[in-house]
């Protein structure tokens, strides 16, 4: 026989249940807000490249096609906008998979510096074209083994290095450092000596579609999703990410990883 609950206990249960329901509803409403905002941002981001392509195609059809040089220029500009659309669709695909939890992590043990060496090679053309240096920072001596989803950490590092090169100054340096933080964690840091990010933007920099300086960045042509993807990946690993930046000095993005052996 179950002991009878007192009126106070029943009332506490009811209050607890009501609070739980209220939290559930609030979280659903939040999701709904996020969804609306995401769609609004997305249609805004799609508009520019689509209108650009439309403009070039219509001008070509209206006669510009008869001039070979003009046609070539217009088509090459339209192709750039198509590239932008493809990148946007890829990033949206990635972020929706991460958010819906349809991409479970498959962690393994690997040496983080080896992964970075691989990535550095991939970037050699991009750094050369901007006369930039991509180098290792003096961190903890010796190989650091981590336990994480290698493919996803590769993507996180690629996004951070890509930004550092993209926003960094021509002729500047991007450095990547690896440190043993404590017995259980490794710290990875990607730094540049570029223009930096104003303090007021830092708290929102990891939000989807957030950009620090719209006019400057529209020329660079990102999707505004790169850092949101990085944060998702690091969050999914139960680790933390941070940013430090100073205008005119540079930026540093750092995240932790689980250390293994
Ligand atoms: P984007 O596709 O615009 O690069 P991200 O999510 O990768 O989107 O970055 C968000 C914004 O953060 C960028 O638009 C830029 O304003 C700023 N940012 C990111 N990395 C750097 C960096 N290394 N230096 C300066 N600004 C940066």
UniProtKB/TrEMBL annotation:
Coiled coil: none annotated. Residues 41-261 form the Histidine kinase domain. It catalyses: ATP + protein L-histidine = ADP + protein N-phospho-L-histidine. Its EC number is 2.7.13.3. GO terms for molecular function: ATP binding. Keywords: ATP-binding, Kinase, Membrane, Nucleotide-binding, Phosphoprotein, Transferase, Transmembrane, Transmembrane helix, Two-component regulatory system. This is histidine kinase. It comes from Rurimicrobium arvi. The lineage of its organism: Bacteria, Pseudomonadati, Bacteroidota, Chitinophagia, Chitinophagales.
């Amino acid at each position: 026989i179950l002991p009878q609950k007192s009126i106070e206990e029943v009332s506490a249960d009811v209050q607890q249940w009501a609070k739980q329901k209220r939290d559930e509803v609030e979280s659903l409403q939040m999701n709904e807000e996020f969804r609306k905002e995401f769609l609004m941002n997305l249609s805004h981001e799609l508009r520019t490249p689509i209108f650009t392509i439309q403009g070039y195609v219509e001008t070509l059809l209206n006669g510009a096609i008869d001039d070979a040089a003009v046609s070539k220029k217009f088509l090459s500009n339209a192709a750039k906008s198509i590239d932008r659309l493809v990148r946007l669709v890829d990033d949206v695909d990635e972020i929706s998979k991460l958010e819906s939890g349809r991409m479970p992590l498959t962690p393994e043990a690997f040496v983080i510096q080896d992964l970075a060496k691989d990535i550095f090679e991939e970037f050699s053309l991009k750094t050369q074209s901007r006369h930039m240096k991509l180098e290792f920072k003096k961190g903890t001596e010796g190989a650091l083994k981590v336990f994480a989803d290698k493919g996803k950490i590769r993507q996180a590092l690629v996004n951070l290095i890509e930004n550092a090169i993209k926003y960094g100054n021509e002729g500047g340096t991007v450095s990547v450092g690896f440190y043993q933080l404590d017995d259980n964690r490794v710290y990875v840091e990607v730094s540049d000596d570029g223009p930096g990010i104003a303090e007021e933007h830092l708290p929102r920099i990891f939000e989807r579609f957030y950009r620090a300086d719209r006019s400057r960045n529209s020329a660079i042509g990102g999707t505004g999703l790169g850092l949101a993807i990085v944060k998702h990946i690091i969050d999914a690993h139960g680790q933390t990410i941070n940013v430090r930046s100073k205008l005119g000095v540079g930026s540093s993005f750092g995240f932790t990883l689980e250390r293994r052996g």
